[in-house]
Design brief:
This protein is of the alpha/beta class. It has two helices and three strands; from the N terminus they run E-H-E-E-H. It has a three-stranded parallel sheet, covered by helices on one side.
């Protein structure tokens, strides 16, 4: 499954991403890093089924692009 996690560099989002990647899902995390931290996803960034996009969920074009490739947000 292709999953988009908003706020994925935060505490809860990073743990959710870790779990989903561990299950074999393709995970895309979008976070503006206002409260999230790259340290929370440092190990995930090395995984082939994980990608990080620094961006804001208020950016309609970005979110349309990312959401169009995902099965679930």
């Amino acid at each position: 499954m292709n999953v988009l996690i908003t706020g994925g560099a935060g505490f809860i989002g990073s743990h959710l991403a870790e779990r989903l990647v561990g299950q074999g899902d393709e995970v895309v995390v979008v976070d503006n890093l206002s409260t999230g931290r790259l340290e929370n996803i440092a190990l995930l960034r090395e995984k082939p089924h994980f990608s990080f996009v620094e961006g804001n969920i208020c950016d309609v074009g970005l979110m349309e692009s990312l959401a169009g490739k995902c099965d679930v947000i």
